[in-house]
Design goal:
binds zinc ion; single chain; globular; 5 helices; three-stranded antiparallel β-sheet
């Protein structure tokens, strides 16, 4: 949710002061709506498929678990909670399309979330290593201990500041001084 908000402020160019461009909110709502429609269509198809499987006696859900049923807290995208500005640069509908394609068995190159093909960033957890996508901090390889570790953002930030769009300028471009304000 935090990462989605941060993403939308950038993709819809929502200025720090909304009065400077009230249409920005409509752009954000439209992007969210488009992504939601794609997701709902896929979730309905999945539900129908599961009903058919249960009728034919297959109780257990097939792997992989659909991306919208995974817990975001333990999931590989948990870094987006700790560092809400580390999210895929894709528009939300593109992100949903990519997740849906993988659920349908597509073998897409690069990071599952954003497609970044650069080598991952290794973060030490003190007793092991976590490999994160360089583009969006998706967990490509978890710590061997199996626990979730917080991602400490390299730039300290204040969530209230993001909420008030301190990271944006009034013309809808990113504030070059953020987060050092
Ligand atoms: Zn990524
Ligand atoms: Zn660990």
């Amino acid at each position: 949710m935090r990462a989605t908000y941060h993403h939308l402020t950038l993709s819809a160019a929502i200025p720090r002061r909304l009065e400077a461009d009230p249409d920005a909110l409509m752009r954000a709502v439209e992007e969210l709506h488009e992504a939601r429609m794609l997701w709902l269509a896929r979730a309905e198809a999945y539900a129908a498929q599961r009903r058919a499987e249960k009728r034919s006696g297959r109780r257990a859900a097939a792997n992989p678990r659909p991306w919208w049923l995974r817990s975001w807290w333990d999931g590989p995208n948990s870094a987006w909670y700790d560092a809400p500005f580390r999210h895929p640069p894709l528009r939300l509908p593109e992100y949903v399309r990519r997740q849906n394609a993988m659920l349908d068995g597509a073998d897409l190159p690069g990071c599952p979330a954003c497609g970044d093909e650069r080598p991952p960033v290794s973060n030490s957890t003190g007793h092991g290593w976590v490999e994160l996508c360089r583009g969006c901090a998706w967990v490509l390889a978890p710590c061997p201990c199996g626990q979730r570790h917080r991602v400490v953002p390299e730039t300290p930030f204040n969530w209230k500041g993001i909420w008030r769009r301190a990271h944006m300028s009034d013309d809808g471009t990113p504030n070059p001084h953020w987060p050092a304000v």
